[in-house]
Amino acid sequence: MSNRFESLLERLAGLSVLDRIVISLAALLAAVLVGGVLVFVSGAFASCRSGLQLGGTTFCYNPMQVYYELFLGALGHPLEGGWSLTNYSLGRTLQQTTLLIFAGLSVAVAFRAGLLNIGTQGQLVVGGLATAVTVVYAASIVPGGFVGTVVLIPLGVLAGAVGGGLYGAIPGALKAYADANEVITTIMLNIIAAGITSTLLSWQFQDPDSSNPETRPVPEYAEIPNIPVIGFEEVNFSLLALAFAVVLMIGMAWLLARTSFGYELRTSGEQPGAAAYGGVDEKRMTVASMTLSGALGGIGGAFWVLMVHGQWLENVPSLGFDGIAVSVLAGNSPIGVGAAAFLFGVFQSGSQSISTATSVPKELVGVLTGLIILFVAMPEFFRLIGRRYVAPGTTEPVRTDGGDPAVDDGGDGDA
Amino acid sequence: MTESDVETTDGTRSTEGVGRDAAGLSETGSDLAVHLDGITKRFPGVVANDDVDLRVERGTVHALLGENGAGKTTLMNVLYGLYEPEAGRVVVDGEERAFDSPRDAIDAGIGMIHQHFMLVDPMTIAENIALGNEPTKWFGMAIDRDRIRSEIRDLCDRYGFNVDPNAVVEDASVGVQQRVEILKALFRGADVLILDEPTAVLTPQEVEGLYDVLEELTDQGKTIIFITHKLEEATHAADAITVLRDGESVGTVDPGQTNREALAERMVGREVILEAESEPVETGEAVLSTRDVTVEDARGIEAVSGIDLDVHAGEVLGIAGVDGNGQSELIEAITGLRTPDEGTITYDGTDITAWSRRRRIENGMAYIPEDRQENGLVMPFDLVENGLLGSQRSPQFAAGGRIDWDGVRDHTEDIIETYDVRPPDANAAAQSFSGGNQQKFIVGREFERDPSLVVATHPTRGVDIGSTEFIHDRLLELRREGVAVLLVSSNLDEIRSLSDRLAVIYEGEFIDVTDPDDITEEDLGLRMAGQRPDEETHDGPDTGESQ
Questions:
Q1: What's domain A88-357's architecture?
Q2: Which terminus of chain B is more solvent-facing, meaning fewer CB atoms within 10 Å of its CB: N or C?
Q3: What distance in Å separates the CA atoms of residue A362 and residue A360, rounded to the nearest whole number?
Q4: Are B200 and A263 an interchain contact pair (Cβ–Cβ within 8 Å)?
Q5: Fold of the domain spanning B3-109+191-268
């Protein structure tokens, strides 16, 4: 039994990209089937006026309709008449995609450096507040209009990156110089971030005209504009922001694959001993990668402020935590983060469509999306485990002497 | 072998043997325990075994000799049911077999002792031996421990093993653990034992003990196939030697009718000079000097106590010593992986004690690390990525922080070709190569760094003789070019033949520094055990001048 499991791990570890895509699609299909049965059966326990009568039982929910709403509803029902590209649902899907790309990248970069950054949420919260405060104050000096847009938005994004980056550097430094586990410190720093920002808000930055806990709104010209060409009027989404996220994503992939820094980061993540041997300053690399990770989270916060709300609110959605799931689903690859973020965006927006179109409860929709994530992420998850604990073995075609690949040939015992 | 050998195995098998001879499967009339006939095993891009024949007579030790990557282990994995051959027959005890898994092979009486033991450390020896084959009592409700113990005692008595079945494996020495592996195979009823590089992990005394065990086993009718790349072992322990080269069998020889040179030539395919010749070279300025270097190990215990050494340009300074006497800590302090607690390290006339590891690399310090899988290679990376390790900030490959992967690939392929890394696949992950080939790649990468100082720890550990010869030649070539070499090796032949001066380290101090030609192997052994030289023989631990 354990042998079979091990050989399965080995095979997973040796999969090609195409294999992995096929497996992901098959897993998606399986999750939809299992979820469909679940929805259908649940329908028997709900009360409704009309439903499918079967052997004296009324099945209230139609799984086909639920999945139709989940996937196509998230795109604004493109197969029905009167569809426009700039509809609310698609806008909301892409808005979430954009924000989740930043959060996902943040987690993925740390992961590649061998660090489990659970603190993206906190970095995003701090970065967002830094953005809102910086832009609100800078707006009083900078002229308005087009100049204001061009100056304030980059300034705001930069402020978010710096805020999030510094906040990410803290657990990095604690790890490097005090050997404090980053999982624990980042979780604690998430709570501290909520506390600090809330205190700062009530102390200084609260909007005096509002009874809600929020900062003063940034001027309208400092919000990320819904240009060019297509404007999403009904929802706060900007194609420009999505384009920036995609460029950042490609930039991160390039950084990891093609630069000295990226090489050192990956080497540290894969094998710290070899990194030290190769001349990487491990402590500095830990701080640097956590800072980069935090900066990416902070940029997520900046876009949440400048694109979605135009101000910082105390009630920050759990984008940072979703980022962890996005990154795992993407196998910690920056490009994969784009696809995974889009899937999560579809879920967010599709869930809303389901609740408007059907009577399926929100919780059940959560189960469906959870199943999909579980099914799609599991092979990837085991592949990562496989890569860590078993060398791609008997299926790997490269060995000629067939020796146990991960072990040494040993020393000269005849010395 | 003769019929009398057949008698020594149990009755049923000898009658089987008779039937087999009648069936004419053993054409020579001798009693073959294993007959591999025309085995061909391909992996995409390489033929690991090409029409290999192997005839192993019952009750003998049969050595399978070949270099790293010659196909020895692949052939045995075919016999053990791990690989399915594309062509050829596996005949065990005269019956043609097709093994789907090691389980089938075990049932057919074949046992394999892997190079790295598959034991559960916290469990007792008896539990490990019985694991997976526990006899039960009360209708399978409980394990019959008494029977396990008595069966193990019987086995130990029969083969003269001195093993305490109640001892915990992690407390046992490596030699004992190996015996446990052999007992495990015997417990499962193995008649043919395959040992994969069995001496690689043993001390010289344990190797002698292993030879005794092998003799006892064959005396009792068991058959041994043992995989090795070391000539001494093959000639010393085996009754017959089959040599593999590049996946092909190049014949079976009687060790009594051959010599090491002829065997080496057969194995490598050309003439091999077994001892590297190191002709005198004009030495230059001291490239590396340490003064009063003291290093504490991870537990805060002083591992290196005030070592002074000088390595001059064009000189090999060898450090001999039993592992764990401070060599590792000293080398790590010199290469920048560890900060010395006291003392100074000077390199090319500059005090580098506070330099980072990167700065030392950039200034021409090449380093072949002791642990290649922990430090020398990033195991999941392919060879191209590993070819960059240490040079990831160098202007040659990463000007302005951007990596020139095409340049790195060319460089990597050069290393693979020059240092004969097999299989020659730059895109394969480092972990998929055998240890010897990993080592060749590291040596190549470090030697081709254009160094002014090479720090080499066990540079040929696990490497086959053909490549060892090449590595030694290249090392001496670097020395001729004026490179300073600091060599640490536990292989006394290697360190004696390569070194211009030889320092013996014991408990963190140099016991003696001498010309390797002026010291006998016995004296060297005594120094390594901590005996200081007499006043009249050599100068003290100071290493001021060479020769």
A1: Orthogonal Bundle (1.10)
A2: C
A3: 7
A4: no
A5: Rossmann fold (3.40.50)
